[in-house]
Amino acid sequence: MKFGMRTPSLKKRVSARTSIKRQIVHRAGFKMPRGYGWIRNPKKYAYNKIYNKTTFDIFKLIKKLLK
């Protein structure tokens, strides 16, 4: 598990928004409401919950500093 700052990756940011899988799921209407990730994949939900609490995003940090 990682602690501290996340390494930014422009390639991963773009691919996450434009992937074929994302387009199919969104257009087919298989979206679940926010907060229901634990129903769809509990193992991934638990990992992401811990990861997001132990790391921080440099872009969000800069955004907070500039406000």
Biggest beta-sheet profile: 2 strands, parallel
What's the multimeric state? single chain
- Please work out how many helical segments DSSP would assign: 5
* Poorly predicted segments: none
* Overall mean pLDDT: 86
Count the E strands.
2
Percent helix: 55-70%
H/E element sequence: EHHHHEH
Structural category? mainly alpha
The global form is globular
SS strand fraction = 5-15%
Strand order of the largest sheet: 1-2
Using only C-alpha atoms, the radius of gyration works out to: 15 Å
Count of all domains:
1
Instruction: Quote the distance from N terminus to C terminus.
Output: 30 Å
Please characterize this protein's 3D structure.
With 67 residues, the chain is mainly α. It has one domain (4-66). Helices cover 66% and strands 6% of the residues. It has 5 helices and 2 strands. It has a two-stranded parallel ribbon. The N and C termini lie far apart (30 Å). 0% of the residues are buried.
